[in-house]
Amino acid sequence: MNARTDTPQTAPASAPAAPTAPAAPAQAEPPAAAELPAPAPTSPVPVTADPDRSGPDHQQFVDWLRMVAPYIHAFRGKTFVIAFAGELVKSGVLNALVNDVALLHAMGMQIVLVHGSRPQVEEQLALRHVESQFVDGVRVTDNAALECAKEAAGELRLDIEAAFSQGLPNTPMAGAQLSVISGNFVTARPVGIVNGTDYQHTGLVRKIDAESVRMSLSHGKVVLLSPLGFSPTGQAFNLSMEDVASATATALKADKLIFITEVPGVPDPVGKMMQEMSLRTAVERLQNNHLPPDVANYLQHLVKALKGGVPRAHLIPYSLDGAVLLELFLHDGVGTMLSDTDLESLREATLDDVGGIVQLIAPLEQDGTLVPRGRHLIERDIGNFSVIEHDGVLFGCAALYDYPRENMGEMACLTVSPEAQGTGDGERLLKRIERRARALGLERLFVLTTRTEHWFLKRGFVHANVDDLPEDKRKLYNWQRKSMVLMKKL
Ligand SMILES: CC(C)(COP(=O)(O)OP(=O)(O)OC[C@H]1O[C@@H](n2cnc3c(N)ncnc32)[C@H](O)[C@@H]1OP(=O)(O)O)[C@@H](O)C(=O)NCCC(=O)NCCS
Prior knowledge:
Subcellular location: Cytoplasm
Distance between the termini: 14 Å
Protein name: Amino-acid acetyltransferase
Mean pLDDT: 87
Oligomer: single chain
Bound molecules: coenzyme A
Number of strands: 23
Strand order of the largest sheet: 5-10-2-1-13-15-16-14
Shape: globular
Catalytic activity: L-glutamate + acetyl-CoA = N-acetyl-L-glutamate + CoA + H(+)
CATH architecture of the largest domain: 3-Layer(aba) Sandwich
Strand content: 15-25%
GO biological process, one term: L-arginine biosynthetic process
CATH class of the largest domain: Alpha Beta
CATH superfamily of the largest domain: Acetylglutamate kinase-like
EC number: 2.3.1.1
Number of helices: 15
Structural class: alpha/beta
């Protein structure tokens, strides 16, 4: 998403709209030093940039590239398990995904791909006029269905390998030179007989050969896994892509597990897509059992991976072109990101916190960073504050003041104690205030700042004028302090 807590500290608040793809560089290779002509005498005509080859598009492109740079640095060398539903291939967007994966690989990320095959297995079954049986949403894989699963996986592997082998000039794959490795990395066991149903060749992951996968990754390969596994007796089992992916991410201690599916993300209780979700909330939502079954299915595997030590897990839609890039390189992402961060320490303030807040902001009031507000005002407005607490000590706070007439909110008093700065607490407080503002139906959040302009700009705020402030705030604006007005659309 994601500021989402996995946003690199230097990351842009939100990358501007990507400019249209630049054409391949028009200039020829520079000549070797020996071929260089002697320097020409200084021209009396001043050399200026060619107006046809400069302009706002160029600047936008440079700005955009610079803004994604922190993410590239942060993700280099990291291991991502990316699982995609068979529906993605069926809908004809495999090449686009492969292009994006090749780009991630070129940026230094280690990628394991896991493909699904549900619609392809269905197609094979239909060709053979065989009907498959499902119990509790799980396929019972008889001999015919197993043959279909093998056939489907084989074809998909070939299609995926072919897509990775493209390299036509003027395509995103030009010069990619990427090799894909598959193998018997997944050991499976049968589901067995459950509640009287014999699931036959339907299996579960028993073990992932993490060492071999890691070795392939370290040699610069993309590892491709199918939803099939083998038992030590040599039997094949039909597995789910979700099971293979979450078991692989856990076994590899991957940095991210990403599901690209027909489901766009996890909706909140009123149906709005959640950008971010804590492990605890995810577990609660699964227990409450109010989620659509397909969302619940993906979510339970993401939760399993998080419990297994994977720090971040994402659910994103394949229907959005470039979804994986947008999720990784945009501040807010496009799907839902689950994180194992213990969010318990971030909470709304109570009257017991007044003393801690006073202590926290006192040095900043003294040096003029914050406007002094006095204990009585904090006491009066305590309900507006959110705080971060570790072991009973407050390390950060921020307050939200709403202006319902203008549908605007002000974030005030944002403070993180010096010993905790630089670990993302400021960002978490901002997110919390944004969430509170959205819950109040506010459309814009503003801050008045004298010294923290860049921190806010990186997090999606833009410059605004005093005239843009709500009327009541405008009347109180201190012209001597000359605070900058920064605003963010929620
Ligand atoms: C601004 C503040 C809340 C950020 O909290 P934080 O927990 O350190 O924030 P994060 O960890 O999410 O972000 C840290 C990044 O912000 C940068 N940053 C911190 N203060 C900054 C500032 N004044 N201007 C620009 N960037 C700043 C850090 O250098 C760090 O960047 P890096 O990762 O490239 O090193 C904290 O520095 C603070 O309390 N400052 C003093 C009070 C203040 O200025 N409040 C704002 C009043 S409007």
